[in-house]
Specification:
CATH topology of one domain: hypothetical protein PF0899 fold
CATH architecture of one domain: 2-Layer Sandwich
Bound molecules: zinc ion
Number of strands: 6
Length: 115
Amino acid sequence: MHELGIVMEIVKVVKDLAAEQGISKVDSIVLQIGELSPVVPRFIEECFPAAIDGTFMENTKLEIEIMPGNGMCNDCSTVFNVLKSEGSCPKCHSKSFAILSGRDFYIKEIKVPEE
Ligand SMILES: [Zn+2]
């Protein structure tokens, strides 16, 4: 399970950013995780409390947005959801396709309390 390492890294990035911007409290952070990313959202959620324990982000909430994983068929150019179609084109059943989106994983937003 590599998710704890990823969560620790996220906490570090947010911490550095907060220090840079003079932010002392973070309400919540929003992560975007692609369906085709190797990162498992459920594990991220499970690791989060341990990663923020004892840090200034102790009360920070975690929000996760899932991005659809879309591919385009190399044979007929149909755009389809890779997971729903189980990795083959729904139109011509080709397994040759290019991934358009859904591989990424990033911090979308850091919400700070309003002054
Ligand atoms: Zn096709």
